[in-house]
Write a structure and sequence with these properties.
The complex is a heterodimer of chains A (292) and B (164). By secondary structure, chain A is α/β, with parallel strands linked by helices. Chain A has helices at residues 44-52, 74-77, 95-103, 111-120, 134-146, 164-178, 192-198, 216-222, 261-272, 283-290; strands at residues 4-15, 18-29, 33-37, 59-64, 67-68, 80-83, 152-156, 184-189, 201-206, 209-215, 223-229, 243-249, 252-258, 275-280. In chain A, helix 4 runs antiparallel to helix 5 (134-146). Classes of the chains: A alpha/beta (292), B mainly alpha (164).
Chain lengths: 292, 164
Amino acid sequence: MIESVLSLTNLIKRYGDKPVLDGVSLDIPKGSVFGLIGKNGAGKSTLLKCALGLIRSWQGSARILGEETRALSAVAKARIGYVAQPPAMLTWMTVADMIAYTGGFYPHWNQDLVTRLVRDWDLRAKDVVGKLSPGQAQRLALVLALGHEPDLLVLDEPAGSLDPEGRRALLKELLAVVGGGERTVLLSTHITSDLERVADRVAVLKDGRIVFAGELGELKDSVKRLRVAATAPLPASVDIPGVISYAGTGGTGLATVRGDVAAAARRFSNDFGASVEVEDLNLEDIFLELHR
Amino acid sequence: MLGGSRSDLGCPVGIRRPKAVAPNRKLAVDMCISILIHMLFRVSPSSGVPIYRQIIDQVIALSAGRRLKAGEFLPSVRQVADELQVNPMTVSKAYSLLERDGVIELVRGKGMRMGDLNARGSLRERQDELSPLLQQVAAAAYRLALTREQTIELLSKHWPGGAP
């Protein structure tokens, strides 16, 4: 059994009467790049903040790096890096001051790494933080979160304000972080294409609930589209296990299937004498299908 | 052995792990490994096919096409992940599934070596393994009114490494 870096059990959080997290359970194994995906307002930021103890009033249990989130020690906190959305920084400082100030909080600070990232990511030491572009501010926040080489790096929508080049550079850095297998990255995003390259595991958050959590490859293997073609007209709706959406007109039908794809394909083939073509779906397609 | 000379680049084969390499040759070796990995593998992250499966399919295709020969070493998980900019776990998963299926074997302290595909079970055993799949193919071809010749032609087209 692989060690869990972050473990949530039945987490419930309400804002007023409205449940934002409705019984979330999640395990994030050490060494993974874990992608949390969900639409805007699905509760991704709230989930991350609850897990980190930045929001206090919630029900359920959360453990992080082997400790209860509600009673996190300073040692454990120093092993966590977090970038909020939007990044929280002191706007009147210069880039260099902001870095020196942040570094002061940590017993371990890799200045060589920080210097390299500042250079590679086109940040200027003398610029004032409040006057940075959103993309620059995002990059600076990432540098600040990487400087103490955290064992758990939590990023809330890290790529939102980055251009494609900046996103690639970020993903490269994330892979370098997890390269040794000892450190873990948890990131939330609604840009699924960023995740496909780097994430090994994903969780899909929908209306405050996790509708899938597991390996990305497993998700792609388990959700497929079936193109059904028959000589006789197909029914307008079907009752076949695993079918999450279906539309049929005349002799052709389009079904999205989750779970035992082969069994569903056989059913279509046997029930309607149809020929069935199985189509692969990428993460974005799957994301949209899971939100129907 | 993979060295810095140009002739090594002419032939896109697996990598024989360099032993001790003088520091001034390290860069050249790294470059060669990088070029070789890109010649071996091409991944498309946003395709519906999981990346680990893409890597597995390519190792098998390269092996069937004799571009990866028995006894040759594959680049390490780390090298492939760095070069292709994908998660090392994904590469590692591909390698361990290939190892489970006997396509490659782990050589302690040296890496993953291409196994001998011909050495896996007797001809009969391997035919038995394929039979159920072919039954399905034959049934589907019949249903689609494809002739035996048309079906075999289609199968050859999908043969790893291209049609003979």
